[in-house]
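Thread: Newbie trying to understand structure tokens

Hi all, I'm a second-year student working on a class project, and my supervisor (Dr. K.) asked me to get a predicted structure for one chain before our next meeting. I've only ever worked with sequences, so writing a 3D structure as a token string is new to me. If someone could post the tokens and maybe explain what I'm looking at, I'd be very grateful. Here's the chain:
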Amino acid sequence: MSEIDINKKLVIITTSFAPENAIGAVRLSSMAKYLSKKFISVHVICPNFSNSLLSDKTLDINDIQNLEVTRTKSSIIFRFVKLLRNRVLSEKKASEVINLSNQKIASSARIKSYFMRLAFKAFTFLRNRDFLNGALKAYKELAKVNEFNILITSYPSFSSHQVGLRIKRLDNNIKWVADFRDPMVYESFSSSRNLASIQAEVMHKSDHVITVSNGVKEMLQESSVNKKIDVIYNGYDNLPDIETLSSINKKDLNLCYVGTLYDGKRDLSPLFKILNAFLVDGRKENLKFHYAGSDIKTLINQASKYGLSANIINHGYVSRLQSMKIQKSCDFVVVGTWNSMQEKGILTGKIFEAFMLRKPIIGIVNGDLQNSEFKNLIEGCNAGVAIESNFLSEIDQNNIIDILSRVMQSKNDSNKENSISKFTFEVDQFHYKEIFNNLSNILISL
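---
Reply by user tm_fold:
Sure, no problem. This is what the structure looks like when written as tokens:
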């Protein structure tokens, strides 16, 4: 550790942090863990975590000597409003309550849906305002006994960057790095003028910007051409001790998808079409498609178009540890995303989870833009195959069918070579140790 490292103190503001059971928490928790090895201290300000929620036990941030986590307390008003919201939702998703699936509904239901949509927007605003106030208060207390050199804020949620704007006003000497896991503004749907204004101000007043892909970098540069932006990819950490699940039969061809389908925006129908062609000779009972998440209805609708809904095994909403057990037990991990003129470079963290597990990926890219960063990343690392649904060729389809056929043959005949062995996983550069070593070099140079 160099002298310049020792003299720098970092504070990270994020709404997603361990032990939250969300893929967004992985990036920020790992960032804090690895940067704490480079700098004299790292402080994290994040929301309080409810013990009633599923926790991610794979994110080990305990017993790190110079990492301190401060959790904000929600106001009484916000806790009351959140309780009301949860009662309205019951076990449904907000998108189901406000009918984001665009199903035909009666006029009275449409009016109800409209007001529910307004209510959920108001809740989002209140949640962000509550964290803004709590995080700013926590920072002021910490700043009384710490002279912070570097501030990192991460979006989503937008309140993190709002805290950054306030802190920069309080201390113009602090070097502020704004992390965008997504752009705040998309052309593909109407973003509020408030979000556009916040993004513009953050891009202007932050000292440095980092983001998760070249596609997102390109979108951010459209609104801030001269801003210095570095790509700090998501990545993976050391593989925790994970056993396979005995309930998943190794003699079957097992595919899995874990996570959200964004109410159908991630459409796996092209894969089910290929699977239907692959199983044309009556081997349907040998295919098992495992799902873990909260979009099971959407997945069944996509699979049923090709007569494969009976092949889906629903594991429900599970912890990240359990989802990794499912992935480790399967032959292929299916990962979906989209790539369009309006939304480029959407690289879900699930890619890097598969890298960590050394499980071959079958990637599905929806959208009207070819040569996606997603496809190039997977195939460039020799970590699987990816198809772009709007540009699906017969060669692509036959390639996947051939790979699946060889896997099935190797299950039935141990003398047959398993085609999975051809994937060599050239992914070492995406280990978080390497990823955040690059980030620490950027921070030291500020």
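A couple of things are worth pointing out once you decode it. The longest strand covers residues 41-47. The radius of gyration is 23 Å. Feel free to ask follow-ups in this thread.
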